[in-house]
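This is your field. Please look over both lines of this record.
***
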Amino acid sequence: MDSLTSLLAGFETALTPLNLLWALVGVTLGTLVGVLPGIGPALTVALLLPVTAKLPPVSAFIMFAGIYYGGMFGGSTTSILLNTPGESASIITALEGNKMAKKGRAAAALATAAIGSFIAGTIGTLLLTFAAPAIADIAVQITPSAKFALIMVAFVTISATFGGSPLRGLLSLALGLAVGLVGTDLQSGQARFTLGRPELLDGIDFITVVIGLFAIGETLYVASRLRKGKSNVIKLEGGATMSKEDWRRSWGPWLRGTALGFPFGAIPAGGAEIPTFLSYTLEKRLSKHPEEFGNGAIEGVAGPEAANNASAAGVLVPLLTLGLPTSATAAILLAAFQQYGLQPGPLLFLTNGDLVWGLIASLYIGNVMLLALNLPLAPVWAKLLLIPRPFLYAGILVFSTVGVYSLNNSVFDLGLLALFGVIGYGMRRFDFPVTPAIIGVVLGPTAEAQFRTALQQSNGDFSIFVTQPFTAFLMLCALAALAVPQILKFRARRAS
């Protein structure tokens, strides 16, 4: 009952005219960036962080949540009509959805993606509503050594599951941790990794790092591969609609995809990629029409899209209750909280309950708005795919530069932006995942603080990380996440 009472209070906050306006702005922007290829919610939230610094925190996070959910909704349009998944979680949608579109069934593919996203997002938000307070009550009792071990689990699992190589993921994480340590040590007062530059004494601004790695890196990568010629966008006449047969074949995949997506989003296990592939495999096995898979099976769109959006709600559980991001967008949202002087975690529900519950309530409202935007206006969003990429990425480059300069009016920040842009391009070029680096930057200082606090409590005794049962269990989980996949690969090679 406490959750329901708090949720009703959250609706009072979210339903004010100003916050409804920001929710609409968020879902519209989110759908827009989801439709445009190569631009995701993580990049959009990062670009808007400097702009929203003067907004009230509740309004800013309602808009960010709308962008997050809207990006998940809009990504299906690009995958289905252009056969270009904006992110790895949409690969399966492109595989089956584009085949449906080529057969003249684009409207049905877009409709099952939108309705499945709405159902999964709503169920996921319901689970978030009741799971988050319970987890927050437990999280209050977690010791600093266990919090450090929990962050280690997040570091290892995210690095090992993003991208094709665990080694590349760990190297990306190391880069992020190194960047996060730049600045003045708060305990000793010593300068670290500043290279004698006074501009680095306060550390490197997170927004500069994110925009450099994401926006500038992506722009350089696209420019290096841009070829003349028009994209083959499948035309869509009328809104997104489904037949009775489509409904009959979609409702089961929607529910099963939701059941897979939410728990995978809530644990640090690589975000939405794994549940979307699992959902596709499950639907292929359960389908009465297995011959259609690979040729435009509607179940192959409905299930993965539901898993994708349910995982988005699941990601908010560890973010709000433990302060642990399990995706790039969640890491940027964590940085946004810190920008407002807030630290996500169990105490956030006590100290800023109006913000948390207003944010959760806005997710229900945003889901309804997104359904209204995506079904009848699908042809409008489809036309955005015709925007020439040079114009699109030139605009991103200008907006990124202006946003970073406006933070401190510093030319030095622009130099850092260019440096991280080149690094971001190199990471894309050589298939290094960016997400572990982002999470390393934002969580690195927190991990260091928890590590030092644990050692202070034990008078410098490192055995505290193996003698406390819960901490030892988490450290073993981190080691297992590194070792088990390699052992399995070694055994598979020997067997072959």
